[in-house]
Structures are given as structure tokens and as C-alpha cells.
Amino acid sequence: MQFEVWAPLSGRVALRLDDATYDMARDPDRDGWWTAQAPAGDGSRYGFLLDEETTARPDPRGRRLPDGPDGLSAVVDLEALAPRPAPPRLPLQDAVLYELHVGTFTPEGTFDAAADRLGHLVSLGVTHVELMPVCSFAGRHGWGYDGVAPWAVHEPYGGPAGLARFTAAAHEAGLGVVLDVVHNHLGPSGNHLPAFGPYFTETHHTPWGSAVNLDAPGSDEVRAYLTGSALAWLRDYGVDGLRLDAVHALADGRALTFLEELSAAVEALAAETGRPLFLIAESDRCDPRTTTPRAAGGLGLNAQWNDDFHHALHCALTGESQAYYADFAEAPLAALAKTLTRVFFHDGTWSSFRGRTHGRPVDHRRTPAYRFVGYSQTHDQIGNRALGDRLSASLSPGLLACAATVALTGPFVPMLFMGEEWGARTPWQYFTDHPDPELAEAVRSGRRREFAAHGWKAEEIPDPQDPATRDRSCLDWSEPEQPDHARLLDWYRTLVALRRTHPDLRDPDLAAVRVAHDEERRWLTFRRGDVRVAVNLSAEPVTIALGRNGVRVLASWEPLEHPGPDGRIHLPGESAVVLGP
User: Fold this and answer.
1) Gap between the Cα atoms of 223 and 481, Å rounded
2) What is the share, in percent, of the chain residues with pLDDT greater than 70?
3) Is pLDDT above 90 for 561?
4) What pLDDT sits at residue 547?
5) Which EC numbers characterise this protein's activity in its record (predicted)?
6) Cβ(408)–Cβ(499) under 8 Å?
7) Nearest-5° angle of CA 134, CA 369, CA 292?
């Protein structure tokens, strides 16, 4: 078997394989690469000794770390993984995404346990499961954004074989799989990459420290390392798309950016395999060039999360105005109306949170709506709150129904966060399992210090290292059977079905969306072709002139009569309705 590793700064590299050691030779055709041939098979443990080191380090491109990030790698026979059924052909423009954290979707916290619940997602009607990061990280439980081995699968979840089984089960059920990957930083514990080469650079600094090296000397190999990892998820495990974490934090000054290279590589793989692969960015820039095709001067990513839509909807529902919500809180329904038609609220406007103007306009007449993902809740917007409280902790079932209605009938590709479809009462809190006591204390005290600035007492903030914090965050699968939860779940199923059966709700023409609202009376309506949507966020009933008669109720949260001949509808408080021909 061929073993190879990029270690350009080392004068000697040896392969430790099971109980044997083999000297490696420099590759004459690839600068900084070392190779060796040795007999090995699936499960063989191996690592690399750099210079005079006596303890082997895991392979930066290793697929499996049975003992965690500080242990040896294990050979994985990719051909022996789960059989791969033909994946469903599910284009992004018709998608309904479902964000899922493997470690808390079930109490067991494994791929296999999550796969056992796929029937729920099929009955809900979503098209893709979006897994939060599954790369190896220190400890058993965590969000996954502090991964340290971008090619390896977290062993407690089930390792490579578990991911392969999950993807196969999802495809068998007709669901696509999207995987969240992190290229902007690596975790602080168990990160061996700096010992191998210039994977990081002091040229730039990020909130996590030295930046990943995308533009300094040695960056060609670092880019290839990250691109290779991304393609491996798509090619070797059958994943259908990737969500790229915080691309605004990628420090990259090169003329041809890493994101453009990655976009081109994924496009080439899609052409090679005949599968509709895609990339979804998380970006704070409000810059339409993120999703503009490369041929038109953009980065070429297929879609991006639209936090402005979330913030406007959240403020309209809750009245909150802290931190970045301040920009949306003065007139939240007007902000929501703007995002429904022009995508970004900040499109060159003043941002009080940032203390400067922010964003760039979207050409809404030429940009399809499926370039953007819309949602009322995500792991970030829940877990980064002090208590990890969901909307269900403070809103009535009627307002939860309104939130679902706007997100699922709006122009963007909708995404749900696990459990929101039944109004889960379990929080989703920030939890870690760092084995390093100093790091654990730094995370604990840092989080308490962060929220102390906003008036929280230290004892009120859940301890990330307490196993109970993770346990509280696991979904309670008895809830969907309870009457109040079951009613909301049925509403979600109804809305997802309407999106599937009414092409107007998948129309990508942003210029065709028409919105009306009343800030004082707290109602909003919008039109998608022949479909009308109305939500009343006030506790008081309202009468709304739809501007058209002859429409009928397709779905309503509360019992509702069809509009009269005058085209007016009487909408109860905290309720929503979808109308059509």
C-alpha cells in the first residue's frame, strides 16, 4: 500500500505502521512530499514520525481516528463501506433543508440512531438532511466546529462506516445529504497540522488566531488539502452538497480565490458523476458576488444563508432589539418586506451594530431566489443565545405557525432546524467536552464573561463542559405525539406539501414577489404568483384587503372562511393563512 504525506519542513520522515517503522523517501516529482510502500489493510494503525520525534502523529489526510485526534490513524477501505444506492436527483432550487446535529438528534448521538429517525423526515416532506460538522474533534460531545482533522469522521458518531451507512440510508429514503464543513479555522485541541507544514500563517489573524494559509508561501498545497477533503465527502461518501462555514472569515488575498477554485472543482466532479452537487455558503458580507457565477465575476457558490431574512423575521416575532437585532427592530415588518423582495436588508445601508455601512444590492430582477436560504431558526441563532432557547420557549403556537409560514412559503430555499417542526421544548445549548482542563476552564469562563457584559449572572449560564448541558440539548422524541406539538407538526407538513404541489411557491423570480404590511397592526401579506400568504402577528384579529377575490383557503392555522366577494379576509390573532385559486 502507498503511504504519502506533505511535510516540507522536515529533514526526515518515517512511517509507523502497526508495530513496524519504515523510512520514507522524498517524492522527486512533488516538492515537500514523502512516500513509502508497506503492507496494510483496513483497520491498520499508522502515523508519521517527523525528524527526531519518537511519537507518531496521525495522518493529516487520514480517514479514521479510532482513538481521537491525538491517536494514530487507521486505514479505511473505502470500497468496503456501505453499498451506495443511486442518490436521488434533487436540485437545490426545489429543496427543503433540515439542519441536524448528529450528537443531539437522538440521545444515542450516532449516525445509526439518526438513520433510524429518517422516516420522520420523509413524512415531514423535507428533501435534504444538512448535517452539522462530523470531522474528528477532541472529546465525545461538541458542536463540531472545532474539528481538527478535515478528512476524518468523528469516531463517537460512528466513524467513516457510520457516515457511509447514514448517507446510504438517506438516499434509500429519497433524501439528499448536505454536510457542513469548516475551512476557516481548526480547533485548538488535537491539531497536529502545524507540525507538518505551513497550514497556518501569521500574515492574517482571525477570531480563532492565525489564519488558515490560503495566500502565503505553501498555500498551494493547503488549498489542495482543503479542496481534496471537500471532494472526498462528495465522492467517497456520496454526500450531495456542502455548507461552507463562515466564508467571510477566509483570509485570502490571491487573485483567484480558494472559493472559486473549490467551486470549479465541485462543478467538475458534478459533471464527471452526473450528480447535481452544490455548495452553500455562510457569509456575513451581504455580498451577492458570493453566489454570482464565476463567468460573471462572482465566486460561483450555488447559494448562501440569508441571515438578514432571519433577523427581520426574528425581530418581528419577538420584539428583541439587542446586538445585531438593533438594525432590524425599529420597523421589523418593513425590514422583513425588504428581505422578501430584495434579499438583503443591508445592501449598502448603515449598520448600527457594525458602526458603518454594510452590504451590496442584489440584482433581484436577474438573481434567482434559490441562491439564498431562508429560515426562522438555526443552530447559530439558538445555540449562541445565553440559554440556547428556541422560539418555542417564548412564542405562542400561533406565532410559531406564522414563522413557519413565512419561511416555508417565502421565495428562498427553506431550511428547518431539527425539532422546530413540532415546537421542541428542549433547548439547544453550547456544549463542549474538552479533555484539556485549562482549555475547558477557558471556554467556561469565556462564555460566562461574554454574557456578563449583557447582564447575565455567571451561574445562569450553562456550563459547556457539564454533560447535562449536552443531554438537555437532545431532542425529546416523545413530544411529537403530544397534542400541541402534533398540531404544529401537522402545520409544517401541510406547508411543505403546499410548496411541493404549488409551483408558484418555488418560483425563483424575486421581482414577482409583492409584499404589503402594517407595522402598527402587525400583519404582513405577500404574493407568489396566484398564491397569497398572510400572517397576523398581533393578538388581535385583523381584516386584510387581498386586492383580489376568487381565492380560496389552501391552509389556515385557525379555522377560516374563504374571502368574501370584496376580497377581504378576516384573520384571527397570531395566525396564518395560505390562499390560492
Assistant:
1) 48
2) 100
3) no
4) 72
5) 3.2.1.141
6) yes
7) 75
pLDDT score at 86:
85
Cβ proximity of 183 and 250 under 8 Å: yes
DSSP string, 203-223: EEEETTEEEE-SSSTTHHHHH
Place of cell 406565532: 399
The phi and psi torsions of 210 (rounded to 5 degrees) equal -60, 140
> What are the cell numbers at 259?
472559493
Based on the structure, what is the number of domains in the chain? 2
Q: How many residues does the chain have?
A: 581
pTM for the full predicted model:
0.97
**pLDDT digits 0-9 by tens, 47-90:** 999 999 999 999 999 999 999 999 999 999 999 998 888 889 88
Establish how many alpha carbons lie within 13 A of residue 450's alpha carbon, considering only the half-sphere containing its beta carbon. Answer: 14
Q: CA 416 to CA 537: how far, in whole Å?
A: 20
Read off the pLDDT of residues 31-50 as tens digits, 9 standing for 90 and up. Answer: 999 999 999 999 999 999 99
The verdict on residue 555 lying in a domain is yes
Q: Give counts: helices (H), strands (E), the chain.
A: 15, 28
- Can you read off the three cell numbers belonging to residue 368? 434567482
Residue 279 forms beta bridges with which residues? 242
Please check whether residue 6 is in contact with residue 33, taking contact to mean a CB–CB distance below 8 angstroms.
yes
Residue 435 has phi, psi (to 5 degrees) of: -75, -20
Cβ-based neighbours of 312, under 8 Å, separated by 6 or more: 328, 332, 335, 336, 338, 339, 345
Report the CATH number that the domain containing residue 563 is assigned in CATH: 2.60.40.1180
Categorize the per-residue pLDDT at 574 as very low, low, confident or very high, splitting at 50, 70 and 90.
very high
Single out the residue in 57, 78, 98 at which a domain terminates: 57
Residue type for 578, please?
A: V
CA nearest to 165, candidates 101, 108, 116: 116
* Grid cell digits, residue 332: 421589523
Would 422 be classed as within a structural domain? no
DSSP 49-90: EETT-SSPBPPTT-SB-TT-TTS-EE---GGGS---PPPP--
- Residues 308 and 328: their CA atoms lie apart, in Å, by 9
Find out whether 4 and 34 touch, Cβ atoms under 8 Å: yes
Per-residue pLDDT at 21: 97
Q: How far is CA 19 from the centre of its chain?
A: 41
Alpha helices in 202-331 (DSSP H): 219-236, 258-273, 307-318, 326-329
**Which residue range(s) make up the domain with 37?**
2-57
568, three cell numbers: 377581504
Residues identified as active-site: 245, 282
Question: Is 150 among the domain residues?
Answer: no
Look up cell 495566500; give the residue. 215
* Residue at which a domain ends, from 11, 37, 57: 57
